[in-house]
Each structure stands twice: as structure tokens, then as C-alpha cells.
């Protein structure tokens, strides 16, 4: 009797399994970086070094996060900043956690229709370029609040490395110069920005050039010496308000004087026994990650397999349902009632599962359209110290180099975070998000964010620190890294590097990373009714840490490194650094 093709395959597979070691038989990614006392993962290697030095000097993870935040403002100027804002999720060694919201606020003179023309249509670029796009920055207040409440070292100590890199400069590598050349045309429009980020001949900096930022060094030195008042109540605020007034903006001194950090309770949820702690509104991140995880908990993802058509199907449907909620129901908690407990309810997740057809793609237009829209350069870093304090920070100028403007003499790039608001219901923003009234512009309001600095714990101990830039995709990037570790058994580097998928309700398209799915899988999905788009490029740069081993299997077996760091292979100049 001749063996069938199926029995031959089964026989060869059993031989392969018999020969294969229990761990993975090939490496799709470089090995995660190991550390026993601390780990710092950022998108720029010099900033990672700054963080590790702070930890070695006895600073805790919050100290390191503050020093890294200031350092990135110098060595990663397309997203690191003191002219923007962000979020910090902290999980302390005793298991308690907190969240600092230092995101931008709309200026007092902002109005709901400020980006619309007389016919009610959005004016192209108005919420993205120049001073009208700028929200009141929060980073300086945020870092100082973190340091004063939870840090241990002096402001001067934590800011010194940033000041030195601004004053003495640093040598640009390939990853650094790529971001400069991509934004050269925009930066050229603002003389003060051009004077810093372009060479005197108007060309972009090249690999091996030294970038020196003396004005930024002076601004940082003033903040180091006098504290945040130097930024919010002194010469820096005056210079920004003056430039704003002269160039079509609406920022006023009062906006700066009134800026206040909010300390909020993070969003938490349980996924297969793991406790996820992440960003609450004014971010949509934590709520939507938890909503998607709650839906996915009802499916055997591990059995269905990473990247299979069935896994992609249920993930996309969970994303579709959750992003309708994101885009319609969420906003700044000082202005709107966020239905957080409803969205995090496990029975709500079951209702969503009941509406998912096991064999067919859903249709976004069939879900109640309540809102639409989001934007493109942000950075995330993850830190853990010897005591087990874990800090996840995502902060941003929104677009790469923000609004592309610098007030004379300050050296400080300003954000274009106002684009994260709904300009007009139904009109997509920079990230294609179609949003609603809950995120309409109002004075002092914070635009809805997707930033999701996240800490995952298991049995009361830190398990994973994770987050990413990527506009509206931050949520699905962070989610997929978590699922890849917990359900698919990938190590932290593989989990971060693995090809990504994304769906955000509208447009009704599954974005897939080039070569991310096999042609067979794509065919299966198309047969279910999905429209797949492999052409887009915004896939973020996740930065993660896994505690106790490089993968779940190693953690369970015991004997893995205490801290295992991974910077996304998509992040050209980043580094995971342990000690
Ligand atoms: O807060 C937000 O959700 C956006 N402003 C983040 C922008 C971003 O991630 C850009 N990076 N690629």
C-alpha cells in the first residue's frame, strides 16, 4: 500500500519534532538583551545609556524616566520633546500603580470650529503646521511632577546629560539622519527650526555630522536651575507666546500659567489571569486594549496560531468593534463622561463576540457610526529598576517634528497635537481616524490620544513593560505584543518584531505589514470578505521588557535572565540596555 501525501507529511513532521529541541528551532529576531539589575529600552541609544547611568547611580525607574525624557528631547528631536506632552504609567515595587497625564491642552482661545473655513470644511494643514496647531505643552511639568513625587535624585542631576548633549552635540547615525531628511522641506519653512535642523546650506545633516543645539541647552539649563516656572512663567513662555502671536497662533501667557499635570487612576483589566495596567482617558489606549483583550479572551488564540486566517479574523473583528467605541465615545474626562466601566465589562465583550460571524468579515458601516480620526511621530520607552519599579512613558509632538516651528531663542520644537481633536465629525485626521463630538475642541480640553504606556503583572509581580508610537495603531501594536507573548509564546523580541495587522473601524480595511501574511492566508481572508492593504508604512517602534525570562516558556521553566529587553527592529537608532 502506498503511503498518502498526508501520512508522509505527518511522518516527516513527527521526525522533525522528535529531532527539534524544545525551544524554537530558528531565530526570527535577534535575542532579547539581558539584565539583572535594571533595563532601559528607548528609541535612541544615547538616551538608553543616560537611563542606565541614572539607575547605576542609585536612581529609581522614575528618575531614569525623567532623565531619558529630557535626553530624548535632545537626541531624538523628531519625537522626544519638551514642547509636547505625554503619559507615564508607573507600577511601583509594592504593586500599586499610578498614571501621570502631561498631555497638551487646547489654548483658552481655541474654538470648536477653529480649523474650518467659512463653508465649514477643514482648512488643509491648519491643525498640523505652524502655531495654530500647537497645544499647550506638558512635558516639563510632567517630568518635574514625576521627579518630585516619585523620584529620588535632583533635577540638576537628571537634566545634566540632556544639557550636555545639547551643548556639546552628538554624532548622528543612520537612524538619526533618516528622520531629519524626511522632514527637511517642512523644517525649511520656519527659519528658527531650519537654523537648528538643517545645515547652513539648507541641506539635511548627514551620518557622522555633529548636531549642536545651544538654544535648547540654554532653555534646559534655565529649567534645571529654576524649575518648571522657567518654562511656564518665564522667558520661555514669553518667547513662545510672542512667536505664536506674530505667526498666526493663539497661545497666551495664561495658557502656560494655568497648565497643570493630572494624576489619574490607570485603567486595569485581567486577560487570562494577567493584570494589564494602562492609560485611562484622555487616552483611549488602555480602555481599547482592554476591550479588545476581553473579546479575544473568548477565543483559543494559542490553538488558532499566530498569523492564521482565523486568528486574524477574530482580532480584526475585536478591533473593529472597539475602535467604533474609541472614535465615538471617549474624550477628556474633565469634559465628557467616558463609559469606561461599560466598555471594560466582560459581558459587553461577550455581546461583541456574539455579533462576530465565525466565517465572514463584519461590515463597519453596519456598526452604529458615531465618530471618526488621528496623527505621526511619537516615542515610547520602558524602564525597570533593581527594586522592580516599572515605568512606561509614551510622549509626543504628534507629527514628526510636531508643528515644525521653534520660537526664536528657545530651541524648542512645538507640537501639533491639536490635530488629534475632531476637526469636524466624519472627517479623518492625520491617522485616518474618524471621530465624533466627545473629542470636539474646547478651551483647556485635552485631545483624545491612543498612547498606551502599559505594564502587565502576573501574580502580583511585574511581567511586561510595553508601548509604542504609531498614531491610531499604538493600541493594536501594544495589544499584539502582549498577545504574542501570552498566547503565542514568542520571546519579547519576536513578539515586538512580528508582522502586524491593524483595523480601526473606518476605513473598513485590514492594514497588514508587507510580507506579514502568507498569500494563502490572504486568500482565505479575502474569501471571508476582507479588504487587505499591505501598502501603508506606519507600524510604530515598540519598546518592551519581559521579567523572569525572555519568553513565557523560559519564565515558567525558571532560570531565565531577570530582565529581558527588546527594542523594535523597526527602530533604526534605538537600543535595549540592561545592567
Ligand atoms: O496621542 C496620540 O495618539 C498621537 N498624537 C500619537 C502620534 C504618534 O504616535 C505618531 N507616531 N508615529
TrEMBL record:
Alphabetic keyword roster: Acyltransferase, Glutathione biosynthesis, Hydrolase, Signal, Transferase, Zymogen
Key word Cell division present: no
Annotated signal sequence range: 1-27
Pathway: Sulfur metabolism; glutathione metabolism
GO molecular-function term, one example from the UniProt record: leukotriene C4 gamma-glutamyl transferase activity
Coiled-coil annotated spans: none
EC number: 2.3.2.2, 3.4.19.13
Post-translational modification: Cleaved by autocatalysis into a large and a small subunit.
Catalytic activity of the protein: an N-terminal (5-L-glutamyl)-[peptide] + an alpha-amino acid = 5-L-glutamyl amino acid + an N-terminal L-alpha-aminoacyl-[peptide]; glutathione + H2O = L-cysteinylglycine + L-glutamate; an S-substituted glutathione + H2O = an S-substituted L-cysteinylglycine + L-glutamate
InterPro entries given in the database record: GGT_bact (IPR051792), GGT_CS (IPR055262), GGT_lsub (IPR043138), GGT_peptidase (IPR000101), GGT_ssub_C (IPR043137), Ntn_hydrolases_N (IPR029055)
PANTHER family: GLUTATHIONE HYDROLASE, GLUTATHIONE HYDROLASE PROENZYME
Family: Belongs to the gamma-glutamyltransferase family.
Subunit record text: This enzyme consists of two polypeptide chains, which are synthesized in precursor form from a single polypeptide.
Protein name (Swiss-Prot/TrEMBL): Glutathione hydrolase proenzyme
Source organism: Mesorhizobium qingshengii
Gene: ggt
Amino acid at each position: 500500500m502506498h503511503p498518502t501525501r498526508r501520512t508522509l507529511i505527518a511522518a516527516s513532521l513527527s521526525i522533525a519534532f522528535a529531532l527539534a529541541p524544545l525551544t524554537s528551532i530558528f531565530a526570527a529576531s535577534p535575542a532579547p538583551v539581558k539584565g539583572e539589575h535594571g533595563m532601559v529600552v528607548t528609541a535612541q541609544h544615547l538616551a538608553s545609556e543616560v537611563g542606565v547611568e541614572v539607575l547605576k547611580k542609585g536612581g529609581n525607574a522614575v528618575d531614569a524616566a525623567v532623565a531619558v525624557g529630557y535626553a530624548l528631547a535632545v537626541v531624538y528631536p523628531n519625537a522626544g520633546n519638551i514642547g509636547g506632552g505625554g503619559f507615564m504609567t508607573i507600577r511601583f515595587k509594592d504593586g500599586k500603580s499610578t498614571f501621570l497625564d502631561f498631555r497638551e491642552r487646547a489654548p483658552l482661545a481655541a474654538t470648536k470650529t477653529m480649523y474650518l473655513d467659512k463653508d465649514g470644511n477643514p482648512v488643509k494643514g491648519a491643525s498640523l503646521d505652524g502655531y495654530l496647531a500647537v497645544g499647550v505643552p506638558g512635558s516639563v511639568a510632567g517630568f518635574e511632577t514625576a521627579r518630585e513625587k516619585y523620584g529620588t535624585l535632583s533635577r540638576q542631576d537628571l537634566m545634566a546629560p540632556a544639557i550636555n548633549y545639547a551643548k556639546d552635540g552628538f554624532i548622528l547615525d543612520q537612524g538619526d539622519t533618516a528622520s531629519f531628511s524626511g522632514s527637511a522641506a517642512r523644517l525649511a519653512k520656519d527659519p528658527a527650526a531650519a537654523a537648528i535642523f538643517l545645515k547652513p546650506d539648507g541641506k539635511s545633516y548627514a551620518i557622522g555630522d555633529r548636531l549642536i543645539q545651544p538654544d535648547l541647552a540654554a532653555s534646559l539649563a534655565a529649567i534645571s536651575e529654576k524649575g518648571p516656572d522657567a518654562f511656564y512663567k518665564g522667558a520661555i513662555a514669553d518667547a513662545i507666546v510672542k512667536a505664536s502671536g506674530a505667526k498666526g497662533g493663539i497661545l497666551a501667557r495664561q495658557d502656560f500659567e494655568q497648565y497643570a499635570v493630572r494624576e489619574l487612576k490607570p485603567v486595569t483589566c485581567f486577560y487570562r489571569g494577567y493584570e494589564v495596567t494602562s492609560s485611562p482617558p484622555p487616552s483611549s489606549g488602555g480602555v481599547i486594549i482592554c476591550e479588545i483583550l476581553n473579546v479575544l479572551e473568548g477565543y483559543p488564540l494559542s490553538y488558532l496560531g499566530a498569523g492564521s486566517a482565523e486568528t486574524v479574523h477574530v482580532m480584526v473583528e475585536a478591533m473593529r468593534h472597539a475602535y467604533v467605541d474609541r472614535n465615538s465615545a471617549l474624550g477628556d474626562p474633565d469634559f465628557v463622561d467616558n463609559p469606561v466601566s461599560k466598555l471594560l465589562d466582560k459581558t459587553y465583550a461577550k455581546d461583541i463576540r456574539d455579533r462576530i460571524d465565525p466565517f465572514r468579515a463584519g461590515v463597519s458601516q453596519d456598526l452604529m457610526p458615531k465618530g471618526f480620526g488621528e496623527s505621526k511621530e511619537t516615542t515610547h520607552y520602558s524602564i525597570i529598576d533593581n527594586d522592580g519599579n516599572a515605568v512606561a512613558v509614551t510622549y509626543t509632538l504628534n507629527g514628526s517634528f510636531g508643528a515644525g516651528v521653534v520660537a526664536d531663542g528657545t530651541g524648542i520644537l512645538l507640537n501639533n497635537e491639536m490635530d488629534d481633536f475632531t476637526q469636524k465629525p466624519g472627517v479623518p485626521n492625520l491617522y485616518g481616524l474618524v471621530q465624533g463630538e466627545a473629542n470636539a475642541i474646547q478651551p483647556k480640553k485635552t485631545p483624545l490620544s491612543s498612547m498606551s504606556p502599559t505594564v502587565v503583572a502576573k501574580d502580583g509581580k511585574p511581567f511586561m513593560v510595553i508601548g509604542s508610537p504609531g498614531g491610531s495603531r499604538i493600541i493594536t501594536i501594544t495589544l499584539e505584543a502582549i498577545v504574542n507573548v501570552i498566547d503565542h509564546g514568542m520571546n519579547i523580541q519576536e513578539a515586538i518584531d512580528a508582522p502586524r495587522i491593524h483595523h480601526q473601524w473606518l476605513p473598513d480595511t485590514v492594514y497588514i505589514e508587507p510580507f506579514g501574511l502568507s498569500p494563502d492566508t490572504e486568500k482565505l481572508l479575502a474569501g471571508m470578505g476582507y479588504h487587505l492593504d499591505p501598502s501603508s508604512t506606519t507600524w510604530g517602534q515598540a519598546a518592551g521588557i519581559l521579567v523572569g525570562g525572555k519568553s513565557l516558556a523560559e519564565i515558567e521553566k525558571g532560570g531565565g535572565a531577570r530582565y529581558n529587553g527588546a527594542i523594535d527592529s523597526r527602530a533604526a537608532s534605538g537600543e535595549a540596555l540592561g545592567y
